[in-house]
Design brief:
Blueprint: H1 4-11, H2 15-26, E1 30-34, H3 39-53, E2 58-62, H4 69-75, E3 77-79, E4 121-123, E5 126-130, H5 137-149, E6 151-153, E7 158-160, E8 166-172, H6 181-186, E9 189-192, H7 200-205, H8 224-228, H9 234-245, H10 251-266, H11 276-292, H12 300-311, H13 332-339, H14 344-352
Parallel strand pairs: 1-8, 1-9, 2-5, 5-8
Antiparallel strand pairs: 3-4, 6-7
Helix pairs in contact: 2-9, 9-11, 10-12, 11-12, 12-14
């Protein structure tokens, strides 16, 4: 079980900080969704979360239908620093891979040329891909390959991702799958951040008291101290990861988890069932949540919480004409009325509700 001081720090985290921590513990990647008007503020908040909370370098790529593979490769690279231990005496072996850049701002560059030199570059710890769903298919495939292989091929070299690596697909204004099929299925969790939940790190960064909306958009600059003394250290993340591996699951709770999967696969509004990758991620997230709550075992409530984060971006709502009861003569208009406004969140709440899988006492 984690120390009480660490649990207290985890409980003080915001929703975005907690989503980031979960992904770093699981060594997986995530989708973060918000309203279109809040997207720029969310980008800056995530930059501050990376630097201030976890001491990680970051890079931002603003995707569009015109984004090329060179744009993508160029944007995710940051300038590699090589300070000596005498120049940075407080650095430790554990946090050495957290500090990969001397420029504590996000990377946003023009298209890369054939002569672009990447020899002194390295992939940033946290990649924030704004509007990734708008990028061409080949760019999304490149993003998937980066997540899977933890490396990217440039024109002159092969760049490997750092030990602490997180890819955040930042989307706006939508529900359900919006990325290419395999990329969407590979991403670990999804989280919706409502603008009214605030941007605590960004609000703290501006000391003049102006509202965020009235401030000229610019990247807040992080200090070197924020890299060297993050709120959540590499050692603490590693401890939480080890504890998650040892979290136990009772037979009854495991049965509840399997029932949720079965109910999702057979729900009349679900078009393509749920994948084996989603089931694997479901189990992994449930184990990761236990130490964050100061537990050495997985509870039914943690299973339900994991289901909401794992399946929200994976569920396809069936088209009325393809709904299974149409095979037995159901009225199409009645099915359209039934499915009108029905989304992935409604499916999950159905499965977790009184008419779905029964939670063990």
């Amino acid at each position: 079980m984690a120390e009480e001081s660490l649990i207290n720090k985890v409980q003080d985290l915001s929703d975005l900080e907690l989503a980031t921590l979960i992904c770093l513990v699981a060594q997986e990647h995530c989708i973060i969704d918000t309203e279109p008007d809040a997207l720029d503020n969310l980008v800056q908040e995530l930059e501050l979360v990376a630097t201030k909370v976890f001491g990680l370098s970051h890079a931002v790529i603003d995707c569009s239908e015109h984004t090329s593979l060179d744009d993508f490769a160029h944007a995710i690279l940051s300038v590699e620093s090589s300070p000596t231990r005498s120049n940075s005496p407080v650095r430790t072996r554990q946090d050495s891979y957290f500090l990969n850049t001397t420029t504590f701002t996000s990377i946003a560059r023009s298209p890369v040329s054939e002569t672009f030199n990447t020899d002194n570059k390295t992939i940033a710890n946290v990649i924030i891909a704004k509007n990734l769903d708008e990028a061409p298919k080949q760019v999304q495939i490149q993003a998937l390959e980066l997540m899977r292989t933890r490396r990217i091929f440039t024109r002159t070299s092969v760049q490997n991702a750092p030990k602490r690596f997180l890819f955040i697909a930042l989307l706006a204004g939508g529900e359900g799958p919006r990325l290419t099929k395999h990329l969407n299925n590979y991403i670990f969790i999804s989280h919706f951040h409502a603008p009214e939940d605030g941007f605590p790190n960004l609000e703290e960064a501006y000391e003049d008291g102006d509202s965020i909306s009235s401030v000229v958009k610019k990247n807040p600059v992080a200090s070197s101290a924020e890299f060297l003394w993050p709120r959540i250290s590499a050692t603490e993340i590693q401890l939480l990861a080890e504890l998650s591996h040892h979290a136990t699951v009772s037979v009854e709770v495991k049965q509840y988890q399997q029932n949720i999967i079965s109910f999702l696969r057979t729900h009349r509004a679900v078009a393509q069932g749920v994948s084996a990758m989603a089931t694997k991620h479901f189990d992994k997230l449930a184990h990761c949540l236990a130490p964050l709550h100061g537990l050495s075992y997985v509870t039914p409530s943690l299973i339900a919480l994991a289901a909401r984060k794992i399946y929200l971006h994976r569920i396809h709502i069936v088209k009325p004409e393809k709904e299974r009861s149409m095979q037995w003569g159901s009225d199409l208009e009645a099915i359209k009325a039934l499915l009108d406004g029905f989304g992935a969140e409604d499916v999950i709440e159905d499965v977790l509700g009184s008419t779905g899988a029964e939670a063990p006492l």
